[in-house]
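As described in the Methods, two query proteins were run sequentially through the folding procedure within a single session, without resetting any intermediate state between them. The first query and its resulting structure tokens are shown here.
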Amino acid sequence: MYVNRRQLLIAGGGLGAATLVGCSSRGGGAPAPQSTGGSPKRGGTLRVGALGRAGAITRDPHGTQSNESDYLVLSLVFDTLTVPAGKPNTAPRLAASWEAGPDLRTWRFKIAPGALFHDGGPVTAADVVWSLRRLRNTKSGASRLPGVQADNITADGDGTVVLVSDYPNAELPLLTRLSSFVLKKDTPDNALDKAPGTGPFKLDWYRNGNARLVRNEKWYGGEVLLDAVEITMFETAQAMSNAILAGQIDLASNVGPVAARTAETRKDLRVVRRADDMAMPIVMRAKDGPFADPRVREALRLVVDRDAMVKQVLSGYGTVANDIMGTGDPRYARDIPQRVRNLARAGQLLTEANFDLGKTYDLITTEDIAGLAESATLFANHAREAGIRINVVKQESGKFWDETWQKGTLYTTYWGTNDSVLFLGSKLMVGDAGQNEARFADPAFDDAYRRAVGAADEAGRAAALVEVQKIQHERSGYLLWGMADGIDVATAKVQGLPTLAGYGRVQLQSTWLR
């Protein structure tokens, strides 16, 4: 679902028709990996801890990856067409370059020269077409490649893939990040666990969520420094924190603020902190049920004490948010007034909407990431002060993703890619989005979104993007109270860690050991 999780051709940058972007699989403006000194050197095994649960394990690159440990494995073994970057924030990977037609509907992606599968076979356009069509036909494929039908993904020779959108879409390269993993054509579903990828590391072994990956000596993207990466799945942030403190792992990925406070007192550890990293919104079902009235959703947004949430849930490792997803977008609308707590106005809205204060409403949450369940509990306390009775229900991860996600009335979720308002709008809020968590259907929002992604001129795009954010702020199904900093804890020898927010953190191909 990460989905954060996720923009070269967004409203943050001008776009001319038929603009060619990206020219190297190592380019794209990614910020320099974090190092504390010394020259990069080759060798060594990096031991990484990542969160995951046994009940949510998946080996399908096109499935729903609710385990960070699984997503890390898949991201290092399989390449996507494009990847998150800095400025611009979409960089080439398996697609060395791309070009839009004059109508912004037809896009041509050129495959990186020299790209090989781990078994030595060349990557062809037929492999990419088969993979993208397979992705598009999955349960959530409509949101991963919105507006692109499977039949409109074709090959032009061996080296070029053509995608034709149903509507003008300047965002298409952005949408191929994170989930467009490429497999060999006709890979059987029962062979996914052994399928060769094209990524910087090859799978050595995988057991119950844990894996060992070894360097791909022939990776087309440049030199890979580490000999191997060993990934250990931890079911709680506390267990992973204990492991890094005991020296059992070298890197605790997205371990959270509690571990950071401890690590900052240790000279043998350092904290990597990334702003705008993780959104943990509360989802309110907008289609039907007790929160269908926009006045009720507004009331819930008004009862939360955002400063207290950041201080208590995130231990100050984060910032207050304003109910707009995509806080890292360069065109984030910071002039929209910050919503603040107002219990009197909340009560007035609940009265106007005839909201039943005599009932108790379940808020479903998980412990998938640090602070998520705590945020639900603190919000319930805030809501109680407005007379709203909230019962927090902690659900096992596998059950949550099967039974609650996209179906529930009130629940927490999380996204680790927050660098584009339109990226998240396409995935989560457009009426026919495959991952429309709140079942939000608003024709005005859909219209503003289409105008924003389809505008070839900067002024038109900017105006539509502001409208997209205003509608989301006013009446979407999201209560986004704050943004958590991404926090990794690493031993002093780990160098070259990625500094990108969200799922840019899985790009470990430039990491090395001092």
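Immediately afterward, the second query was submitted; its sequence and tokens are:
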Amino acid sequence: MTMDLAEVDLTNCDREPIHILGAIQPFGFLLATSADWIVQRAANTAPFLGKDTDALIGETLTDIFMPFAIKQIRRRVVMLRTEDAVERIFSLQLREDDRKFDVAVHFSGDQLIIECEPATGDELEVSSTVRSMIQRIDGAPTLNALLRDGARQCRMLTGFDRVMVYRFAESGSGEVVAEALENGIDSFMGLNFPATDIPQQARRLYVRNTFRIICDVNEPSVAIEPRDQPSVDLSLSLLRAVSPIHIEYLKNMGVSASLSISIIVDGRLWGLFACHHHEPRLPSFAERSAAELFGLMFSLVLERKLRAEEMAYEDEARKVSNRLMSAAARDNDRLYDADWIGEIMLDAIPADGVGVMVDGEVSISGMTPSEEQFRQLIGALNQNSKSEVITTTRISEILDEAREYEGRAAGMLAVPISRRPRDYVVMFRAEQLRSVRWAGNAEKSVEYGPNGPRLTPRKSFEEWSELVRGEARPFTPAQIRIANSLRTTLLEVVLRLTEAASEERRQAGEQKNLLIAELNHRVRNILALIRALVGQTGREADDIHSFTRTLDSRIQSLARAHDQLTADQWGPAHLRDLITTEASAYLHGQAERIEMVGPEVTITPDGFTVMALVVHELTTNSTKYGALSDSGKVCVEWRIEDDGALLVDWVEKGGPAVMPPKRRGFGTTIICDSIPHELGGDAEVHYRTAGLEAQFRIPARYVDNAEPSRQGPARPSYSSDAGRANIAGKRILLVEDSALIALDAEDKLIDLGASEVVLAASNKAALRAIEADDIDIAMLDFNLGRETSTPTAERLRDAKIPFIFASGYGGEDTVPVEFRGVPMVVKPYAADQILQGFAQLGSNDE
């Protein structure tokens, strides 16, 4: 018998029914019920429920699970509002045997799918964990940094040997653009994978079900019973069995367990977090839920960054469009000047050459075909009856004769600039001769199996290069949108020259105004939000680290000010606390540089929010330009007048000479106008050479009460320079059981000058590090889950190695009496708090 090998091609893999394999992975069990909760299908129930699947078929779910479990499952089922929704329940007791299970429920057609696996007791708080992870990546300055940090965070959460960020190209192939590895694991960074490695039906599943776990490629799957019924669609299943072809693929890579998290941008599969482990691995239900949520949030952060980059480019290109329209409106002859149009287009869209045909006149410049070849290309384009932008990375796919000049003009972006497809502006890009690094030979081989010939996965993943010729760098979607915008602009001007086009022009103008209005509306909303949080911070920061640090302190300061109002059900708040809050956000341990004199006064919420804005702007200006920017100080004195009004004096002394601002900015407006306009009070601001002086009068209706002045004990403040000196060049032992907090603290210590940070998550690891390494100083999280760091502290004390504690509790009773003199940093901490802690090492004697 002979087989037609021509029938075996790369679409064989695309046709494999991976969502209806009729089996599940054995780390859990599955029940499929009808609408009346009668079990119709089941798999792998004996190890977990003590009953074979045959015995469960036809039973009602209420006969299998205890009433409380049924009630919890019903609640989750009610929440399944969309066909792709999956609801989860953690640590649910299903039966009377005290065993608990993690449960996931979803609909598959008219059946309810219930998947259960033994609960691990993992107490991971999913939302806070993911929030911390996203906060770490959200400030990434570049796309590459974002991808790199994403891979690192994902690996810290999942514990897999290798985590790759895999980005898809328009062709469907992919490239590893970031990765995080265990020591000794081979790197795939920069390698490409062919589109056939991830079949089309798998890509569709990655969009529907953004998370996929394969815990052990060597563990046989378990069939769903009864087998003689149509297979259940397990597209949304957590336990879905694995395609034999994919199992073979993973084994060829030496991978025993894998996990993938989809990265979705604009509703499309942008890429994947692809995680590999060389031994079987099943992260807990909570860890997997956190990883899935992280993938969703990461996708949003990535989409926002990509859109920001596109908006910045499109904003510049839009200026070119406006210049084109303005010039053409003043001089209609410009529309027939091919050289001028070509220059305009090159300003907006990067290219190696440009060709223009207007009314039969041709102009070419840069790396382009000859004039004769260009006219031939225009003729081929005119055979396309649609008047639309055409782009390709290989012109030879449209015109065979283009192979003659593909070395200098391999790709193009053709923009029709007349009502009929006659006149064109064509942007050319030269051949991008490049060597693509594939992860092994991308070709798959045909082998005979029990079902005839099929394609087998690649067996070699060693680097294999392929020289790509005749192909140009593609034009980006943003550049294509700009081309369409420029085409619209040119057409609008051209149509204005004819009477017949007047109605079309009017509609285009209305559409443009609508788009501009919508754009203005959205941009203003976005700018309002951005300005509220980062407007001032961005202008005063020299780099991303200072920006992040300053923004973090301001957000914490504003949050504490808000807490003053909400602490007592939005009641009156203390003026002294407001000023102290602002001072602590800017003066970093030198709050005494703002002297306060006056009785204890509370201000009603309406007045307090306005006063908070004023004090915030005064403090900001003083730290940037006034007394607090130098060695001076600020005196704030307030008193209650006879009519009950509050009079506040702000006087700056000892700072640089003050000059009135050359323009009235937003901050000045807040200081001068907020209290008069919103509270009906008074505000006077004087820019004295010796320092700014301001007086504010708040009407009595906003002043709640006044009490005799209170003087709290002065808090000790230590020099940041001393802390930095104690850290600089030191090898620091950091004992911290939270991976995310450890990463954050490690980054801060390195930024503060530490030569190296040795991480340890337990006393055992810490003591081993002390014996093996030359440790200079240490920072110990006192509470390490089920133990404290007391043994490590005792060993450090005996070795006369200085150390400080860190804790989320922070009270005097946190540490044993023998360590009461050890400096303590209270979580969550910033770099300044770490400096304060290490500064005390030079002032405290153990």
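The CA atoms of residues 245 and 457 lie 7 Å apart. We note this only descriptively and draw no conclusion about the first query from it.
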